[in-house]
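Researcher: Following up on the earlier apo prediction. This time include the ligand. It's zinc ion, with the SMILES given after the sequence.
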Amino acid sequence: GMQTNCEEPVGDFECMMAALLLRRDKKSTAAHLKSDLNRTDNSSGVRQLQELLDSVLNPEKPPADTEALDWCKCLIAGEEGFEEFCKTVRSYDNATLCGLVWTANFVAYRCRTCGISPCMSLCAECFNNGDHTGHDFNMFRSQAGGACDCGDSNVMRETGFCRRHRLRTGENVPSVPRDLLLMSEMVLPRFIICIIQYLRDGYTEPAERDLQKVLQQLEPQITFLEELTKMGGAMRTVLTKILTNQQTFKDLSMGQEENVFAKKNYENYLSALKNSGLVSVEEKAQTGAAEPTRGSETGEDQDGQSIGQRKRVKLSSSTKDPSIMDSLKHKCFLEELLFWTIKYEFPQKMVTFLLNMLPDQDYKITFTKTFVQHYAFIMKTLMKSQESDTMSNRIVHISVQLFSNEDLARHVTEECQLLDIMVTVLLYMMESCLIKSELQDEENSRHVVVNCSEALLKNNTYWPLVSDFINILSHQSVAKKFLEDHSLLMLWMSFVSFFQGMNLNKRELSEHVEFESQTYYAAFAAELEACAQPMWGLLTHCKVKETQEYTKTVVRYCLETLQIWFDAIGFVDELAPNQVTFHLPLHRYYAMFLSKAVKCQGLDLESLLPDQEMLMRIMVHPLQIQASLSEIHSNMWVRNGLQIKGQAMTYVQSHFCNSMIDPDIFLLQVCASRLDPDYFISSVFERFKVVDLLTMASVHQNTALDGEQERPMLEGALTFLVILSSLRIHLGMADDEILRAEMVSQLCMNDRTHSSLLDLIPENPNPKSGIVPGSCSFEEMLSAVADFKAPVFELGGSMQQGMYTPKAEVWEKEFDPIMVILRTVYRRDVQSAMDRYSAFLKQSGMHTTGNPWPPYKERTPLHPCYKGLDRLLHCKTLHIVIFTLLYKIWLDHSNMSEHVLCMVLYLIELGLDNQVEEDKGDEVRPSHCHDSWFPGTNLLSNLHHVINYVRVRVPETAPEVKREREPPASTSAEASNFGQAQVFSLVAERRRKFQEIINRSSTEASQAVRPKSSSTRWVPPGTPPQLVTEILEIHESMLSLLIKLHQKLSAKQNSLSATWLEDMDANPNRHAHGDGITAIERILTKAATRSHQSKRSIQEICGKVFPPVAPKKNSPTAKKTMDKEERRQRARERQQKLLAEFASRQKSFMETAMDVESPDTEAAMDLGASEVKESEVLYDCVICGQSGPSTEDRPTGLVVLLQASSVLGHRCKSDEAKKLPTTDEERIYPADTCGAAHDVRLALMQSFFKDSSCLQSVSIGWDGGVYVQTCGHTLHIDCHKSYMESLRNDQVMQGFSVDKGEFTCPLCRQFANSVLPCRPGRSTEVVSWHMPSNKKTSVLVKEVEDLQEQLGFFPVSTTTESNLSKEMELVIKDIKNTTQRKYMDYGKNPGSPDNDFLFMYSVARTNLELELVHRGGNLCSGGASGAAKRSCLNQLFHVLAMHMRLYSIDSAYNPWTRLTQVAPSRDKPDVPMLFRDCPSLLIIFVLTMPQPLRKEHFICLVRMLYNLQYTQALAALSAKFSPEERQAWSTSGTLKKCPFNTICALLLCFLSQLSSSVWSPQSIEYSLQQFCLPYLRLSCLLQHHLYGDNLSGCPEEEEFSGLAGCLGLLDPAPQPSNPMYSASCLDWTVSAFDLMSQWCSEVTGLADTQAEKSMTLLVQDLQWASPHLLHLPDNYNTIFQYYHKKACTACKKVPKDPALCLVCGTFVCLKGLCCKQHGICECVWHSQHCGAATGIFLLINASVIIIIRGHRFCLWGSVYLDAHGEEDRDLRRGKPLFLCVERYRVLEQQWVSHTFDHINKRWGPHYNGL
Ligand SMILES: [Zn+2]
Ligand SMILES: [Zn+2]
Ligand SMILES: [Zn+2]
Ligand SMILES: [Zn+2]
Ligand SMILES: [Zn+2]
Ligand SMILES: [Zn+2]
Ligand SMILES: [Zn+2]
Ligand SMILES: [Zn+2]
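Model: Understood. Below is the ligand-bound prediction.
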């Protein structure tokens, strides 16, 4: 029987019972059914199951009810339970692929060495288990998600497979038992249709219901599907069968006829299907309009300004395959499931499910086909999506897995028309945003272009489609299909033409544009991604002769489409003025296929070229771009805003140049090589608008340019010609040579890091990564041309990265200024390259005087196809221009510049080096230039040709007109010349040529038909009526002008002697580098060597004696520059006046800053200078500049920075830094730190003794102590106050908070937050401190006691409240505010004066201890007293002492008494002397006694405390003895040397510690010294600061005696022969035995009850190693792999931004709300508790370190660098990173020395949000 339970349960109890029963029922039902189904006649079993499923899987029930899901699990699993079932199925997994699917932000790997497809990726596990040593791999954070390709030999090489997937596990797996998956096969189809029905039901058109909500409800069901896929190959096979079975789909899809719900549900599905085609049903009805018609639609967008005006244009879609445009039809579950996945915009879980199935080969093929079938629908949905970014990522997540596989891609290309679909969809997409082209003549234009301000382009929505297209074109088999299919190619070309001429710029002539359009980036991105990338993809398959046909076809269609384009925009031969578009993809396709054809396929260029007329047209637009670049740089487009500069820069930028400027230049070179050179040259000058300038006349008119634009435009034109005739990128350079040239030019501009160089080198033709057989790799090339400069580290210096710099021989031989100009985005980079070049020449002694000129470089010979290009250098037109310019430069005409001369000389030299073979065939053509300036076209022979007369047209006012016109008495030849003196008009020349060529090339006289609209528009320039014709007398040749210029440049008459040519030949290399003089000499030499006639001519000219060099005229240029100079001067004055007022305050202290090198304080305190003995200490105020004493009324203070520090507390016993844990097994134990040890000790004392006594027996401040540092500058405290006031009003000051008292030192700009008042006083006092003492110790002890008696009688409060004492109290307040309360209140009663007392003297302790740490932990290095003066400890002690007097120590408890007298024992609660900390006692005494303290009294204190310290040492030592040892030592003779061996015996008797150590007299003495050393060091340092004594250095092993001597504990005369005994420093004023007995008895009384604890207190180790940051592993990956997915211990989640404290290793959630408490995020919170507001954190995902200091933070940089010495912030490159030990040391050093604030500059507030 079958039991189903559809009734609603009643009560809670019943409900539970029912559920229990049902669960049991499910299991037994499942078992029962399974056995039924296994029978031979299973029809009843099948029927029963169907009935059960009918009622369980009811789509009318809400999906949130998981009852159905439970049933399915039970039925599938049978009696063994689902978990168990999963395990069993998994054991039959035969998959050989990894296939792990991941989503965004997952960390994966890519190995270019192993990858066949560039999209290949590996999961971390597979990567780490494979062998990729030495491979080109990187780690990356997945953006769109992906899947592991390990095991898939279609995508990657087998050598890269991991161990597991290399083994082909599948072959050994047993086959699946028949009945295991039987139930799955029966149940799952029903389950899947149920999900589908939910999806149908949830969707309505238009989607009004919240799709996310529907998906959320379905979550458990879809998760279940995903779980199934994880069971491995066996289950995937079952699923594949179900998903692809057409019969099942047919049976189940419609549902039962009688069911109303199912019927409606199915109709819902059908109506959704209906709109799935690209063409809507209505549109299909009205196809017919063949002509493009304007749509009525107008786009609405955020910046509607631009769209609103432009109307969308709709095209008819007649060209496309209707089958692609149609609605979808489904035949299996998989198809409908994908359909809904698309409709629901790719829910993540569904995507993961679909991808998880991919390791099943049958599924993979069917799914790929299904995906392709839905491709158009996917893109249609994408365009409508609100979340197109997310959806794009999900689409690519899937498509990359399918299309990266060549077999699969080819398969669907062949069977499913993939290419047709993609191109059609691309067209469809772009057609949605077409507008009429405005290029040329908008009214009559029939061309349409994409509108770059539409969302589709601006948001890059087309990206997934284009990326798929590029991906499949990378497969040769697919690309071939594309190239063979002519109709596809044609369709593609019409797609490309949508981008031709888009984003047109019109030059603003009157007003500045109101709105700077930002569409340009969308346009550049679109051309690069949608046009250029597919082009490069296709080109990689056109590399060999066999593929010639492909290239020919592409070229043919390019030309056809170009012709259509010219016709559509109505272009004849004249450009509409003031327009430019940077987008000419059709030109560029044509250019690049031409280049490939000649370079790789051996095709004849001639066969691929169109007729001359077409070439002339093709040339126009690229040339216009070159001219516009020059216009933009000459500021002619300023009114169009900054964006136009952005376009000019993007056009040449490294990611675009290969696809834009390079093809353009190449195309122009092709045109130049085929067209008439005179025509080409005149076109160039006309385009650059400098034709008018090219006259010999002194005055000219320019209708097109303003005066100040002429020079830069002329320079631009000449530079362009130089580039055109010298660039060889596509004219014969090999790929390696190109890479080398690119690299050299980038390195010459600047030293580069490896990564920036990688970024700056264009991708084509040499991809920077991956293996291109036969070509030189990036790395090899780099090491050939550059030297590596390792990062240099200086303490306090900025972090440097590893840099590459050109090798010397590269500067000498390869620096190519032309390549630099071509590749510079910023103009300053050209200058930078020249500066670096000059510096190199100077340094190497090659050129030492003046500024060198850009070096001339010889070019590689041209490929025979392009030989015609050289004719450009050998045409009369160019020679006339050169002659004219040389002449004008010589005469100092306006608008000439050094740059012009440099380019002219460059052109001459290029001409000399690239001779044209006089081709007989050429002579058939008629004369090239209609003039008689020069006899021929050869430059070499034209050089020495003398021009006698030139006819110019000038205004009547020109100087030429006034000159007396008188033809010279002449020979007949000259007379005839005179008659023919030439007027030369370039424009007229060009127009005539154009006509000629057209007449010649088109015999059909088509030109007669062509409307010559342009010719009526054209007005010849220079026709204003005032012009008159004048004849100039010249009598110069180019050679003579060159020689005159040589004289002019060298400022020497006859600078070239008649015989100089003979001297030249000796060393030709001498002339490689130099200035203009060198260049002219080089040219003359070349001319002389190559032509006898030139040589004779040169010798003749040089032999003549010239008149003195023409004095420099006050030319208009000069005047202009003077004017400019004057204006600038005036502006500068005005500015200075303003500044003077503004900065008078700062100025005063900046000026005094100049001579404060030797402050008076230093001199005053120098005791050797007797003459200043009587004078008061003087201080300079860095604000007002006055100097004077610090007085009670007007105190002076030191600029100080107070900060809380826990550096001391983090010290450990071991000198080895603790290791950062990188596995779960490793841990850091914090208990052994100095801070923790002191806390334990104090707590232990407090459990035994009176609190107030405890608080005087230790020091605190190990954690959270206040450290005081100063820059050494002083200021009046009242000056400081007004300074702070001005800062508060100054909005510019940022980076610190004035309200918190923060400021920067007005003089040195160091960060500070308080002012420490200076003690007023006379230096006589200083002397009195030092008075030598002959008093007996007992007398001194008594004097000290008396002084201490005064304590109570000397309260500060009774003295008049002076300004000074007020300031002193203020700084005390600052000190207290610096640290947190918990670091001050150690007593049992919070806020008691005892706490305050402890805190105050501990401040002194902290600062002394830190100084010791900074000195390396000992005082062996010594130090002059000057060091003490630069420190502020003396002033700090004074302030502390003044404050400490507020407290009185109960004289009854005065430790001095107990230290120096034998007295009856006191209350137990007092801390025994043997437990007290001697350094603390010393500081307490010093600070509580009347100031200033005499040195003799100080020494007395040190001596008495030494007695105690030594006794403590003995006690601690004897505690380590074994009883036997104790016995032996107490009777041995060694200790008898000191008079108190009995004391030792006394001490020994209560100690019971066992120890097996063996002690010698030497080791005992050594450990006693070690025990006392910290005390001696501290005393010595204190003395140094109080009295300015020099610290004498000593070897480390003699430190004890050195310090003892320094403190006067020992006879100053050293006795090196005798071993030093620590006991000889003892000095007792009472019986040592009695006193020590007394101290011991204090402990022995206690020891009875608390032996163990008193032992702990007695045996203390006072030595701490210097502080260290954690020890880090060498390889960053070790840290990253462990921590990037580690869960936080507080919130148990994996943080989004994990961070690590480098001081203690704590792992925190940076910025995470999860761990925020009291409004403070975890990182900041930790910094407060671990470092007293200083924190050093390593950001795991970024590899950088941030510093937190109080309320501020800064980015410190990284201590991990890649193999090239570079940081990789945010792990963008993902290359292996290694610890840079030097950097880490710098970091640690800054931490220990508390200099983060001073060295790091960019601080910002963190608002507790880190
Ligand atoms: Zn894997
Ligand atoms: Zn693997
Ligand atoms: Zn590899
Ligand atoms: Zn002052
Ligand atoms: Zn300063
Ligand atoms: Zn920490
Ligand atoms: Zn946390
Ligand atoms: Zn957290």
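Model: The mean pLDDT is 81.
Researcher: Noted. I'll compare it with the apo version next.
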